[in-house]
Amino acid sequence: QLPARAVFDLPGPVACAFLPDGRHTRLLAGQAHARNKEVMLHLPMQASSHGSAMPGELRLDMSRQVFMDTLRKNVEAIPYLSGINNHRGSLLTRHPGHMAWLMEFIRGRGSLFFVDSRTTAATVAQQLAGEFGIPNIERKVFLDNERDSQAIAAQFGQLLAIARREGTALGIGHPYPETLDLLRHELVRLGEYN
Prior knowledge:
Layout: H1 2-8, E1 15-18, H2 25-34, E2 38-45, H3 64-76, E3 81-88, H4 96-108, E4 113-116, H5 125-131, E5 136-138, E6 141-142, H6 149-166, E7 171-172, H7 177-186
Parallel strand pairs: 1-2, 2-3, 3-4, 4-5, 6-7
């Protein structure tokens, strides 16, 4: 719980994404909401690499009914939900049929947005979100694929460069101490980068 609380203390536009089966997910989502952080479902999706399924994972071999039931349980596990992004999903996000099911479900929930984590260049998730009229954005930078302070700083610099060029940019990171240290220092300085 301590890394999560450190995330809640970060200044500025930080959203908190939770896996649906975490032991403290409901409690932490409530705390994030109380600290004015956006709460998201970090939705497990099948990856290209063959491995055992995670709890709540959406998979290619699911029937539409099982897919929708699993998705509904995942969404109901997270209070104060405002959006969804994919966890893994390098296999599932390339399949338009399954992404259409996802977007149909999201559209039926009203005001949720979708973030395509872009775990594969072949993703069609954001395209389908647009086709279904769902507010959406894609991840531009993974901050901490390499868990090293200098590498994270370089990734943050890349995120800023994209934001300057395109007007906005979204980065995804984990509550690692190295990532939190950088964000603690840099988020208060965002106004200086305009």
